[in-house]
Amino acid sequence: MRAGGLQTARAGVLTTVQDLGRAGYAHLGVPRSGALDAGAHRLANRLLGNPETAATLETTLTGCAVRALRPTVAAVTGAPCPVRVDGRPAAWGQPVHVPAGAVLDVGAATHGVRSYLAFDGGVDADPVLGSRATDLLSGLGPAPLREGGVLGLGAPPAHRPAGCCDAAAWTAPPRELLLPVVLGPRHDWFTSGGLRTLLTCGYRVSAASNRIGLRLEGPALERAGEGELASEGMPLGAVQVPPEGRPVIFLADHPTTGGYPVVGVVPAEALDVAAQAPPGTPVRFTPAGA
């Protein structure tokens, strides 16, 4: 345990340590990983005066609870949720003092999917390839939180900004996602009707979605022919189409290669809101720049 720490009192459905990821290792088969809602992660750190690279906790739907093993200051951003310290209501989107021994409880998301817990000094797990991020696909980084587990905290920053930013500016995911998409590189594997389906028909976020990809339910895309595609590199935001024809949007823990055709790519700046879309959210694609 480094400079005090945290003990998990309630792990939630899935709570992981995340930072801005480990870019530059795709040639080794290692995805970027990192916070799915990078904007919310950065905001949580700014509220405490941490560098944006400091590690946070990313919760999924049901939140989590941690006991402070030293006095600390925390901030919760991302999906709005009830926040309590030893059962007493505390502020969402603002610095919150947590005494030693107190339990910080982050409840279920009222909007969105993922909340972010930052602590002064950041979560201090052992870095792997320059990042503390949990990568569920490659199995790198710290394991997801388990009840009773302990995490370290780094040294608190020397100065904490006053009124540096406004968490109220965080935008809850819309009732319908309208995602820009750049067609290619394998859009020629689909008929004109299949491309028309992609750009005019509606989809819904599947409950099978995870940090690897946002799976969609809806009409299948018609292929132009049979055949197999040799494995090739997969970028963040790739819209890959498996044999059943329903698109999957690759998120931070996506595989770095794949053999199913990529009909298009959703720009990275549109993925924060996609990562906050709960199951059942309607989704439509629109040509980027349109």
Automatic annotation (TrEMBL):
The keyword Nucleotide-binding is annotated on this UniProt entry: yes
Q: Is Iron a UniProt keyword of this protein?
A: no
Provide the species name: Streptomyces reniochalinae
List the GO molecular function terms. ATP binding; hydrolase activity
PANTHER family (alphabetical): 5-OXOPROLINASE SUBUNIT C
What are the entry keywords?
ATP-binding, Hydrolase, Nucleotide-binding
Name the SMART domains for this protein: AHS2
What InterPro entries does its record include? CT_A_B, Cyclophilin-like_dom_sf, PxpC
Superkingdom of the source species: Bacteria
Protein's recorded name: Allophanate hydrolase subunit 2 family protein
Q: Which residues form the Carboxyltransferase domain?
A: 27-290
